[in-house]
Amino acid sequence: MHVTFSIAGTTFLVFCVFAIAAAGYLLGRVTIQGVSLGTAGVFVAALLFGCFCYGSLSEQLTVAGATFVTDGLKIVENLGLMFFVTAVGFIAGPGFVHNFKQNFKSYVCLGLVITLFGGVACVLCILIGRSFTGLSHAEFTAILVGLLAGALTSTPAFSAAKATVATAELESLVSVGYGIAYLFGVVGVVLFVQLIPKLTHADLDRERDRLTQVSQNAARRTGRVCLDEFGLMPLALAIVCGIVVGSCKVGNFSLTTTGGCLLAGLLFGHFGRIGPVNLMPRDTTLKAMRELGLVLFLIGAGVAGGSRFAEFFHPIYFVYGILMTALPMVVGYLFAKHVLKLSLLNNLGSITGGMTSTPALGTLISVAKTEQVAAAYAATYPIALLSVVVISQVIILVLS
Predict the structure, then answer these.
(1) Listed residue (281, 252, 267) closest to 393, CA to CA
(2) Farthest-apart Cα atoms in the chain, separation
């Protein structure tokens, strides 16, 4: 009997996605001095896969000379992003309004401080570095603004920068910068939220109590009628609403799918019900969707970024990216601690939102052992989302 074994086409894509996830979780478990990559290990595994195996994946997703690998990875990335941010919105929703009212000025100020210092770092790198590069001002600025978007892990800023530059060639340079800086943009914030509690010798039990005091009145208002056992229907409905909201544009600005789904999740989570109908999925469902979504997003973005990482990587660009990640993150932390007087977990939750870092939020939830840090993330995220998009566009228009 002749036995054949073949994994091809879209089945090969699915096989690769789950193989990367398995390898990434193993890598994320490696602990050095009490610090580990956690779920961000999946992103590192995805980058490595993109560097060495992207060609094989592209071959399997090529039909009649046309390749669909970019579309396939984009579907994986966007599906994961929608699952993650919508679940985060639901989780943060019950306490969001109270928390935002109580700390409105703090969240607005911190979001602006983080993104402004990221922009300052980008401008300084452009003004200093363009004297030592063979690229034109427009080309160098395109790469550096891409680095800024990657350093702050901001997909909306990345999209806005590509839309603002004049040519397709400059768009590709924005993509190069984003891919180079995104690695440290993810890993840097993930390590930061783990290291700060250790370096400050924080009592996390005490910090959780302080966080609970800030996020009080977060009781969920649920209805008597459940639409399905696990709450997948309201989750799906929130995603649909989020896509519609995120697709609306005012001039060149939109919330994008990410911002739209986060907003929809927050509103659904805040109200909890419509009449007698329960709109809140189970906690277990939300946690599973949050983790699954984060993993899919990291795989889709990581494989695509890894495919061009080796080709365009230059050490100095990585240094610029580190500066654009570290400066706003450290300044933001110190500003929140000494000026705004935020508690540690509110501080770090706001940092993940200000850096628009979904992987770091997942890590912080694991470190803090409470979902309530998501409220600070969700409060700061919209401010950072808007300001980094505007800053990226202004830098291109002024310095190109």
Answers:
(1) 252
(2) 75
Percent of the chain with pLDDT over 90: 20
Whole-number Cα distances in Å, 119 to 29, 30, 115, 258: 34, 34, 6, 22
* 379 neighbors 103 (Cβ within 8 angstroms): yes
Please work out, in degrees rounded to the nearest 5, the angle formed at the alpha carbon of residue 185 by the alpha carbons of 69 and 76. Answer: 25
Q: Round to whole Å and give the CA distance between 329 and 315.
A: 21
Alpha-carbon span 154 to 144, nearest angstrom: 14
Q: How many CB atoms lie within 10 A of CB 392?
A: 29
Closest CA relative to residue 388, chosen from 138, 161, 177: 161
Q: Which of 9, 90, 123, 148 is nearest to 290 (CA)?
A: 90
Q: Extract the tokens encoding 275.
A: 């009449």
Using an 8 Å Cβ cutoff, are 309 and 50 in contact?
A: yes
Residue type, 270: H
Q: Alpha helices of 103-167 — where are they, by DSSP H?
A: 104-129, 137-151, 155-164
What's phi and psi for 2, nearest 5 deg? Answer: -95, 120
Helix (H, G, I), strand (E, B) or coil at 277: strand
DSSP state of 202: -
Q: Is the pTM of this model over 0.90?
A: no
What is the mean predicted confidence (pLDDT) over 253-281?
83
Rounded CA separation 349/91 (Å): 14
Strand, coil or helix: 15: helix
Spatial distance between the Cα atoms of 199 and 191, rounded to a whole number of angstroms = 12
**pLDDT reading at 154 higher than 50:** yes
| Cα–Cα distance for residue pair 279/272, rounded to 1 Å | 5
DSSP one-letter code for 218 = -
Long-range contacts of 66-73 (CB under 8 A, 24+ apart): 70/304, 72/10, 72/13, 73/300, 73/303, 73/304
Length of the chain: 400
Q: Which of 283, 317, 290, 257 lies closest to 78, judged by CA?
A: 257
Which two three-digit tokens encode residue 60?
Answer: 């399997």
**92 with 377: CB under 8 angstroms?**
yes
pLDDT tens string 370-380: 888 888 887 88
Please state the three-class secondary structure of 168-184 as a single string. Answer: HHHHHHHHHHHHHHHHH
Count of CA atoms in the C-beta half-sphere (13 A) of 300: 20
**How many beta carbons lie within 10 A of that of residue 4, not counting itself?**
4
